Every structure is written in structure tokens, then in C-alpha cells.
């Protein structure tokens, strides 16, 4: 049997710190003029020294704890030596497991999906390189590259799994969970362009391991892995040898491609960074990180279930911090957790535009509806102001303009007819037109439903069926 | 007496009492430099702003403001220490036009103390060498005999001080680079405890070994400069402690150990001079004995492993893209651009980069780098044990006399062997000083004194004691 | 330890330094001599020794406070629209 094995290396940019990993430049480099967010240190100028950011270490520690990793008493940084035009020092400061010193998290594990689990090999803290741009955007014809170092030195937390995935679908579920965890930790704003990147390794039938690099969005990892499995299986079935290599994900064509650089000639010559002393975390590091750690998705789910939500609905909410936060703010406007959760999960989500969601990296891309709107809607239903069918129609009307449901209900007279005389008039006219049915109903109580149906039809569903039925019965007696 | 002959203390006193102005003093120095530089070649760059800086100090004094303990004192700075607005070449073509946008912490601190940067001193390219022959900007010559090397890599620093082109200098010392030229040029040079002085702005060669060190014609001048620059710096995570203050003091009864291994393979004339130095110390009330340091046998192998490994990585950043010399990147494929630009490194730098790449390459880390770091631990432990019964350890700074220019340049291993006595202090992270011990056939010999970590005061005491008693002759005729 | 020309050539590639044939010849011989000397380390009784290291407490690390660098830290004149011009990739 050709069983496949897959592992992931996930890079999450630490967007939760104010300054870079080793200098005081800002982490928030997006939208700045090229090279405006740099200093001698992150440009790798002669004589500069790395000054390790305490908060970044804390974030990496929290991530390690959240992923069930062991956090050692001491951590060190290593130099990974390789040349690349966007790498200011031509080495990357990263972590490494060697000679009694490990990265900040090792030997962890995480449950995801329905009872699946993956082993986490390590969590490490490292620096992001700069960014290459091509003049006119064309790598083939440009006689030079343009370099922007604004990103250089932004902290990255790298999460490395064991090759425990056997089904590409699991990868998507796992990445959903990782996304939710790093969002909850405040580590990484995953919606920011380029803030999460993923490499995958794939082997089929116990064969050679192939690395896929350059997958720029989590959404594409599953696609890349599927493509690679098919490629390797096809090769094996034709008796072609699968080589151990690094392939690049071609985002435009959605295929993996042979890499131009000869990776086998790489020799990273790791050694401990002499300018960063071994950091003594000490025994309090873990306990204090645990104390200051925000609530994680799993705990949040438990709390949501206590609010009366079903396990499934709670899971859908916590899979995406944006949704869970939306839910929590909505129940502050109006405390009806179950009702609100259902409106979000079953109704509101059907309005999500998938394409816009991917583009803008937000669940609510293009929607103007906020927690207060859903709270208002739930309240209208709860208090019998409108019925559920009307509520659904109103939701459809407000999602994009962002009007308040109660205002829409009022404006369109969608509220139930409380006015007895208005309802009485409608019943009177139904009695006049449906003469035969009225006669029938005086004899056969089951025929009353027909009249009720006519009344509901005439009021476009706005009539309160209970009140209408009582009034019909009363009027029948008068006949 | 011409002003350029004055020591740091005398200059500051004279300038503050307005006996002479800082401007007059700097003017005299610039003339002196103009006169002796054709012979010595100690400088890569002269600071054009020195006179202007002197005027601001004079104005401060006229206005009754504090001008600092080094008011007006001219200091040369090894050209691998960053000076804002003054190009810093590391004696390399790779940094031919590099003008740092910031000052090294030691430079800031010297200037805060009132010192004036007179110029940037020559060195072996990126501080790799023991003779100052490996410089893009020509060899510096020994002021005592200009046919000979001044030592290195801080050869320009030591020569500029010996040749009275400045009062004091900052060098850097990864394996003896301050003490070796101090010894060869008959001046005082100190390598402080690792972590005592900020390396922020010192262009890294061997990060875990090197420290900035002061050079002066007297122990007193070295103390003045050390006081200005020592102390923890928030820009360097490897600095420790607070802000120490050192003094010049007479101290009797110091326990001195002469390290047998330091004498064994040494030029007999040098060894004889060191034994005489021990007698001098004994005459001053020191308790001297002979002692042994077995780890010396592995020290050089450990040193060259670590230094080349770290250097190979430190020097990777010089790819000429962000700064460097003028070579347009247009049209080049990046690998070939890097390889072409980087072929501009000099002979010794290339050799060490390749050696360092070798010891770090796949499968060799455990065989070389790790073992070298372990050897440092052993050496440190052995020294710590010795310092229980000795306050200072002594020996020759250099095992040989200053040799002829070109004599060893073609045999790298032979050249490396001259560092045998100096690398010990770097490997152990301990302080050491070289003080003039005397002359053999007109060539200087230096006495090296070493103490336990952060015992700078102890070696300064011992060095001062020796200096006062030995009374070694002053400056060369130039 | 034998050092071969092939090895030195590869090291030159790793270090991105173009070596002439003469340099290759010379460095191979010299580096073999140096490496032989470094092999002295093999004779050391080191199994139990912990490597030397400096340490710093987590509490003493740099606090996460941003600051802007005043001035232009880039030296190169090869620039365009704020970008640095670098050699091309392919
Ligand atoms: Mg990585
Ligand atoms: Zn920066």
C-alpha cells in the first residue's frame, strides 16, 4: 500500500511585539517606505550586536506551552550560515537542538480535529530576512533585484511537527487550530499579508522525503501536499525514482516545481551565537508564562459549552478567533448565547463570500454586520417581536448595509401585528371572501386551519398565529 | 618640551589649567604626524575634525564648563572600531568607503570624557594577524626599527602611541592583538576581562574572545583611558557588572607566579629579560615563584579553531550590497556577484574564512569547535586553581623579538605560533597587560601580567610597581 | 587530516569567495598544515567537560520598547525608490 506521511514547518511572524527580535525597529513594517524601518543592527552593519527582545522570548515560550512542549531551563541561539541577498548578515539567527542546548520548546503534541493528534518536534525563535522585489515584477528579465530590509529581524516562531499526517485534510484542520492558538496568544495576526508561511514535507510509501517550500498561505498547503502526493505516486507507479529534494510551490500554477538552487550543496555550519549569552529562563519562566497566558481555544470551547452551546457550535466558533470574539461581544449586547451562536454559525456564515474572505483574510470581509446587529436580531426573535422566518429575511437585508434589525423591522412593518383591530379587520375580510370555508368550519373544527392559513397569507406572516386562531374561533361562534 | 610628548594626565591638566590650549596641542600633534607618518604609517585616516573638536573643548573650559578627565587628550582609534562620520575600513578593501552612521560605545565614552579622536589606526585586515602586514593600506613599521614589524593586529595603535603621534589609543585584542604590538613597540597595552568593555561598534572578528583594550606610554595613561571606557553597556548583552573605577596605587606583597611553559620555547634573550623582571618584582616586595600551566599545550589549537570559525561567519556579511566598495550589482547573478566582490578580501582573511568554514562544516563541529570550547573550560579551571596561590601570573608577552617585515608572512602556521602566550587570557576571558620590560639589542621586550577575572586593579598594581622600578627607557628617535 | 583541493574549492563556494588556481593550490597546502595543528585537540581528555558559555537572566533581556534610528544606515549608492539594488536572482 502506498501510504503517505507528511510533516509541517510553520513560520508565524510575531506581530504581537512592538520591536524586532534584536533591535528597536518596529515589527509593524507593513505599508512603510522601503528601508525606512531599519537601523544599523537589522541591516547587519559592522560592529552591531543583537539585543534579544524579552517579549519575543515570552511569546515563543507561551507557544511552546500551548503546544505541550517541554521548555528547558536555558536556551541559546545559533547561527545558520548561508548566503542570500535578502539576509543582511548572511546568516540567520535561529535555534537548534545540539549539545545539551535545545530550542525553546521540544517534544510536544497537539490534539486537533476529532481526536487526532500530532507530535510537535520543536518550537524555535528566529529572525525573518528582508524582502526581494523585482523591478517591473519580473524575475527573468530584471538585471537587478530590489531589496527592502524593513522586514529583516522581525521575530518568527517556527513550529516543526513530526511527519504524523497521513491525510491532506488533516493538515487543514491542524493549521486551523494552530491559527486559532497563535491568534488567541496574541502572537501573530494571521490575517496580515505574509505573516504565516508553511513548508511541508511529503513521503509516499516509505520513500524519499520531499520538501515543499514557499507556500505563502495556509489555504494552499493542502493543495500543495495533494499535488505532491499525486506526483510521487505517479512516479512510483511508473517505476521512476522519487528523489530527496526541495521543491517550490508555484502559487500561480498551483504545482510544485523543481528548485533552482542546489540545496544539497548547502551546509549551514551551525554554531552558537557568541553575542547572545545563554539565556537562563529559570523555573519561574514557565509558571509565570502560564499565569499571564490568555485563554486558549480549548478552554474557551469548554466555557462556551457551559453557556449552553453544543460542542459542535462551540468548536466552529473557537476555530476562528474572529468568530469567537464576535460571539463574545454579541452576548454582551444581549445575553442569549445559544440563540446568538446559532445565528452566527448557521445563518451569518452563509453570507460569507469565500473569495473575499481569502483576499481580505477576514471572515467578515464585505459584511457590515457587527455583534450588535446579531444581538439585536436575536432579541427580536426571543421577545416574539418577529418570527424566525422574518428574522432570516431581515438578516439578508442588513448584512451589507449594516442597518439595525429592529429599525428594519419597524420600517418595513415586519413586526407581528399586535394591533387587535388590524387583525380583526383582516379576519373580517377573510370571512367575507371565504364564505364556504367559514360554513365548513362551523361544522368541522379541523377546517379552521384553512382560515388561519388565509389570515397568515393576508398578513404576510406577520400575524401572531395564536392570537389569530383565538379570534377566528371566537368569530365562528358568532356566525 | 614639545606638547606631543605629554601623557594623557599631563595633557588634560595642561588644557584645563589653560597652560596651553587643546587646539595648540592638536596642532602640534598633526605636525608631528605629518613628520613621522612617512616612516611609521600608523594611520589609515586622520580625523579632519580634530582641530574643530579641540576648539569646542577650549571653549568649554573658557566658559567654565566640565571638560572631562581626558580633556583635549588625543587618542587614535583602531580602524575596526566604528566612528560616526569617519570611515572605518578594517584595513580592508571590503570596507574601503564604509562610513559608520553611529559611534562605538567606547568612542562615545572617550569623547564624553573629553578625548579627541585624532585618527584611525592601521591594523591587520579585520584584526587578523600579528604584524600589521596584512593591511590594504600598507604595513605599519616599528618606530624603534622601521625595518621591523610593530606587532599586530593593533600595530597602528601601538606604533602611533610609541611614535608620539597621540597620547593613547584603543586597540582590540582577540588573541593578543593589543599586547603583542604593545610589547613590540615598548608601550603599555591591556586586554581587559571579557565583558568589562562594550564591543558595540567594534567590528567583530572573534566575538567570544575579543575585547577593546587601551594602549598608552605609561600605566597611568592606560588607567585613565580604562576608567573612561569600562563598564556595562545596554548595547552589548555580553557586558557585565557596573562601572568600575581604577586607581594607581602602591601595593606590596603581591604573590607572583612565573609560568614555566611561557619561558620554555622562548628566545633565550627574551627569557633572560623576563627572569630579570621577576627579580625586579621580588625587589619590590613581591613573593615570586615558578609555576606551571599545562593547558598551554592546547591553547593555540583551541584559539585558532574558535577564531577562524567565528571569523568565517562574521565576515559573511561583507557581500558589498548594503555598504562596501564601489561595484555595481547590475547584471550580475547573485552568487557570482558575491563571489567576485568577496574575492577582494586579503590573503590572510581569505585563509581564515576558509579554515573557519572547514572547522564548522558538516560533521566537524564536534571535532573542532565544540572541543575548542571545552578546552577553554579546562584552561580556565586550571588558571582559577593557580589564582588561589598567585595574584598575578607573569611571562613574556611575545616569545620572540620584533622581526623583520616580510620574514614570516609566507608561513601562516609559523606566524600563528607567536601568539602562544597571549591567547591564554582571551580563551579564559581574563585580564592581561603588557608593560615594557627592557631592550635586547635595541629591540623591545614586553612583560605580560595576567590576573583572575575582573582583577584589573591587581594587574594594574603589579604593572605600576614594575614600571616604577624597571624605569625602561622612553620614546624612539624618529 | 588530509585536506583536498576539492574540499577547499567547496569551502570557497560555501564562503562565496572566488579562488584562482594558484590560490587553491596554496590554500590547500596551508590549510592542511593548519588543520593538522588543530588536530592537537584530539589528544585532550574532554569527554566530561562542559563548553564555556556566558549567561544572562531572562529578566535582564531587552524590554520590548521600539525606537526609530535617526539617519540613513545604508551606505550604498545603488538604490532605487528607497530600495537597495542587489544582484539578480536567476
Ligand atoms: Mg526557520
Ligand atoms: Zn533595526
Tell me about this structure:
The complex is a heterotrimer of chains A (479), B (478) and C (90). Chain A has 3 domains: 4-287, no CATH class; 295-411, no CATH class; 420-478, Arc Repressor Mutant, subunit A (Orthogonal Bundle), CATH 1.10.10. Chain A is 39% helix and 18% strand. Chain A has 16 helices and 15 strands. Chain A has helices spanning 54-66, 168-185, 218-237, 284-292, 297-306, 311-318, 321-333, 337-347, 354-360, 371-382, 388-398, 405-411, 420-433, 435-443, 448-458, 465-478, and strands at 4-13, 74-75, 78-81, 91-94, 105-112, 116-127, 131-134, 144-148, 155-161, 196-204, 210-215, 245-250, 255-258, 271-272, 278-280. With 478 residues, chain B is an alpha/beta fold. Among the domains of chain B are: 3-252, Amidase signature (AS) enzymes; 296-374, no CATH class. Chain B is built from 16 helices and 11 strands. Chain B has helices at 8-16, 22-40, 50-62, 105-112, 155-162, 179-184, 219-229, 260-264, 268-283, 296-314, 334-342, 347-360, 369-389, 412-417, 423-428, 456-470, and strands at residues 43-46, 74-78, 116-121, 168-173, 188-191, 211-216, 255-259, 287-291, 392-396, 432-440, 443-450. The longest helix of chain B has 21 residues, at 369-389. With 90 residues, chain C is of the alpha+beta class. Chain C has a domain at 5-42: Orthogonal Bundle (Histone, subunit A). Chain C is 31% helix and 11% strand. Chain C has 2 helices and 3 strands. Chain C has helices spanning 5-14, 21-38; strands at residues 55-57, 79-80, 83-87. In chain C, strands 2-3 form a two-stranded antiparallel sheet. The model of chain C has no long low-confidence stretch (mean pLDDT 92). At the B-C interface, helix 10, helix 11, helix 12, helix 13 and helix 14 of B face helix 1, helix 2 and strand 3 of C. Strand 15 of chain A pairs parallel with strand 1 of chain C, so a sheet runs across the interface. Bound molecules: magnesium ion and zinc ion (ZN). Residues 20, 23, 25, 38-39, 41-42, 153 of chain A line the site of zinc ion.
